[in-house]
Structures are given as C-alpha cells and as structure tokens.
Design a protein that fits this description.
This is Transporter. It is a multi-pass membrane protein. There is one protein chain. With 486 residues, the chain is mainly alpha-helical. It has helices at 14-25, 28-40, 44-72, 76-86, 95-127, 135-147, 149-168, 171-198, 203-211, 220-232, 240-245, 254-282, 291-303, 308-341, 346-366, 381-408, 411-418, 422-447, 459-476, 478-485. It has one domain (14-451): Up-down Bundle (Amino acid/polyamine transporter I), CATH 1.20.1740. Helix 1 (14-25) packs across helix 14 (308-341), helix 3 (44-72) crosses helix 18 (422-447) and helix 5 (95-127) packs across helix 15 (346-366).
C-alpha cells in the first residue's frame, strides 16, 4: 500500500467520514435548488432519473476518488503522483491533482460570499432586520445587503475565519468534531421545520409538488439537469472527497460508504423541500424563485406565521451550518498539501491559506458593489470564478479522474482498495471506463450551452446510443480490452 513517510491522520471511524462527506455534499444548492428542480421536472419521475444518474455517474466517480485518496494517503497532488508512479506512468497525470486542488480553492473563494448571506440573514432574523410587507421589500433588503461592501465583507470574512479555525484544529479535533454535531443538528432542525410545515396548511401541496409522478414533465432538459446535479452535488472533482478519502481507515468499505453518502445527500435535499415548500405554499408564493426563495420569499412567509421568527432563526442556523460544512471540505486539499509538503504546521498552513482566500474572496465580494463594473467579457470576477470552476474545471477534472482509474492505473490498486466481488468490480470498471466518462462529457458540453447535436438529437439520447455501442464493443473485443488495460 502506498503511504506517506509518516503515518497519516485518519477519521476515528467510518461514521466520521460519512458525516464529513455528507456535509461536503449538502450545501446551499441542496437546500433550494434540488427541491425546486424536483418539482419543476416531474416530481417522483425526476427523483428516479436523478437516482439513476447518481448510480451511473456520481457513485462510480466518488468511489474512484475515495479509493485514489486512501491508496495515495495524501492531497490530490500527492496521491495521484504516488499512484501513477506506482503504475509506472508519466507524472503529467499529477496535473489532475493540481487542478482539483485549485478548483476547490477557487470555488471556496466565491462560496464564502454566498455563505456570508446565510450568516447575515441569521443575524437579521434575530435582530428584526427582515421587516418587510412584500417580496419587493425583501428584494430591496437583499440588494442593500450586497451593495454595502463593509457589511458583505464582514460576513464573508466571518465564514473564512470560522472555516480556518475548524480546519486548523486538524482532521479529528477540527473537522470530525465539528461535523459530529453540525450534521445531526442540521437534520434535527430540518425535522423541526418539517413539523412546523405540517401544520402550516401547505404541506399537502408541498408533497404533491415534490413527489407526484409526472413523467410528462420530465423533458430532455430535465434529464440533463438530473445528470448535472448528480455530478455536482457530491463535491466531485474539487479535491474535497479525494482528500477526505485519504483519511479513511483501511477497513472501511468504500462502496457502502459512498452509497450511504449519496442516499444521505438525497434524503437531506428532499427533507429541505418538505421544510421549505409548505411555508411557501401556505402563503400563496411561487416555489420557482431560485435564490430569491431563500432570501426573499421565505423570510416574508415566516413573518406571516405563528412562531415564524423562531422557525426562521432555526432555518438560517441550519442554512449556515450547511454552508460551513461545505466550506471546510473545499479548503482541506490545500491545507493537506501545504502541511505535508512545505514543512509547516497545520495551523500555519490554515491561516496562510486563509489570508490568500480572504484576498481572492474580497475581489469576489466587491463584484456586488464597488467592483460591479469591473467586468471582462461581460462577467464580473465572481462570475468568472463560478464559470471557470463549474463549466470547465469540475467536468474536465472528473473526466480525467475516471479515465486515469479506468485506463492508466494498475487494476490491482482498485481491486485491493474497493474490495468488491469480481462481478461488482467488473461493473464498477465498466461504469468508470465508459458510462461515467460519457455522462461527464454530456455535462461538460451542456454546461457550455450546447444542448443539441446535428439532426436534433438530444444529448441524453446520444448518451444512451453511445453506451450501447460501447457495451457491444467491450463485449466483442477482448483484444481491445487487454490492450487498454495493459
């Protein structure tokens, strides 16, 4: 087994990794986006397609990243470098590790600004700063919150400092200890909010919105949305899961752990829908409001309901915790690499990274106020960070990871790490070699705004055709299989 020169810190058990990885996956997008797109694209029909996409793309890629991390016992850069060296391949593949680490850092650079909204609104809910009589009033509060650089800068700085304090304490004392109470706390508050929603008068409408099986609403666009969300929701290709996997004990089952994270992520997202939409429907509001649902419609709805302030506070505490569990995962790859390679303590690595993160995130924060006119090709600095990471770095990084695992590294590496039966291992290998790459390729092309190919074929149908053709070729050409695996 490939290891560091010194023993690497590990999670105290599988439960610690499960909570940390689920915390990484459950972020702000899960709280509002997944419930909304579920209702928009067919309810239960969309959930079934989404779960199929999770199994076809999300789970195989996540298993691959965890196996790479545990085998390499290091940051994405170190783990991939060690494994390609072990397989006798070129060191250029370690560029995937660099891209993953940079991707996570850049995502966090604008994510702390968005996370700052959650903390800011928690304070506003506590202090009575969300008083308004209409959605327009709430929109004005939201705009004013962003147009004040001192206010927005304070809250994004608070998220940065809180993140660095947690990761600076280490894997067990910092990350694991924090998620041990934050994730259960998040679920408890979701349950409390669901209980509140049951008596709000809109619970039946929320259940129908989320779970009615309307296959007619599931268009090709909905299938693409399910595929894209299945990939992005699990924090793949950003260095987080690979680095967390490097702390996973050798005896823990990667397959069972990955499935548990995928199920937990989906369940929490659906619970969020059952917590949010009853309040929205009870007040006659539209669920199709995007971020405005959280920061405009929902605060207004809480004001109109008994005990609304109490449950509004609970909601924004939950939202803040979801943001924080995601932020600590995004920076861990950078901290791990610095502390392993630069001879500095973890605390020093954390605060050094925090200073750079604060500088970059400040530029992102200024995109909403003083720097709103600082644009390049019509995009602000914030927009460019989002565009480069979500449209390019994550899809290309994920594609590189599965191609590395499927065609480059020694198969013994994954047989030992995954510990699957021959039949299940063959299925994983087929998914990683063909189905997952094709799915990620579709995500990449769609993210660039190309949703159709010549003759009007939708990408999901093209994907199905390519999978069938690949399966036929795989079964019909043993010589090709031996060549690719050599």
């Amino acid at each position: 087994m490939t290891t560091n020169e010194q023993p690497r810190t590990q999670w105290r058990g599988r439960w610690g990794f499960l909570l940390a990885a689920t915390g990484s996956a459950v972020g702000l997008g899960n709280i509002w986006k997944f419930p909304y797109i579920t209702g928009e694209y067919g309810g239960g029909a969309f959930v079934l397609v989404y779960l199929a996409c999770i199994l076809a793309v999300g789970v195989p890629v996540m298993m691959t990243e965890i196996a790479l991390g545990r085998r390499g016992r290091g940051s994405p850069i170190d783990a991939i470098r060690r494994l390609v060296s072990e397989s006798g391949k070129g060191s250029a593949w370690s560029l995937l590790g660099w891209m993953a680490m940079l991707c996570g850092f850049l995502i966090l650079s604008f994510y702390v600004v968005v996370a700052g909204w959650s903390f800011s609104y928690l304070w506003k809910m506590l202090s009575g700063g969300l008083a308004g009589s209409s959605v327009d009033d709430m929109a004005a509060i939201f705009v004013a919150n962003n147009e004040n650089p001192l206010n927005l800068g304070f809250w994004s700085t608070l998220v940065t400092v809180a993140t660095m304090v947690i990761v600076g304490k280490g894997v067990q004392a910092g990350i694991e200890k924090s998620v041990d109470w934050m994730m259960p706390g998040l679920v408890i508050m979701l349950l409390a909010l669901i209980g509140f929603g049951i008596f709000s008068g809109g619970f039946g409408d929320a259940v129908r919105f989320l779970f009615s099986f309307d296959a007619g609403s599931l268009s090709s666009e909905g299938m693409l949305t399910a595929l894209g969300h299945a990939f992005f929701t699990l924090s793949l290709a950003s260095g987080a899961i690979l680095t967390y996997g490097s702390y996973l004990p050798a005896k823990a089952s990667i397959a069972r752990t990955t499935l548990s994270v995928a199920v937990a992520d989906t369940v929490v997202a659906l619970m969020a829908g059952l917590a949010i939409f009853p309040v929205i429907f009870a007040n006659g509001m539209s669920p199709a409001s995007g971020p405005g649902l959280i920061f405009m419609s929902l605060p207004l709805a809480f004001q109109a309901m008994p005990l609304g302030t109490l449950f509004g506070v609970l909601f924004f505490v939950m939202l803040s915790m979801a943001a924080l569990t995601s932020s600590i995962s995004m920076v861990e790859a950078t901290i791990s690499w610095l502390s392993d390679n630069k001879g500095i303590s973890r605390r020093t690595a954390s605060w050094s990274t925090g200073i750079v993160l604060w500088l970059v995130s400040t530029l992102a924060m200024l995109s909403f106020n003083l720097g709103a006119d600082w644009t390049l090709a019509g995009k602000t600095f914030f927009d460019w960070l989002d565009y480069l990471t979500s449209r390019w770095m994550m899809p290309l990084g994920g594609l590189g990871m599965v191609l590395l695992a499927g065609f480059v590294l020694k198969h013994e590496t994954f047989r030992e790490e995954l510990g699957l039966s021959p039949a299940w291992h063959a299925l994983w290998l087929f998914m990683v070699r063909y189905v997952s790459p094709l799915g990620i390729l579709v995500i990449f092309v769609d993210a660039l705004g190309i949703t159709r190919v010549q003759f009007g074929l939708h990408w999901p149908w093209l994907l199905a055709i390519l999978v069938v053709m690949t399966l036929v070729g795989e079964l019909a050409s043993p010589r090709l299989r031996r060549t690719l695996s050599s």
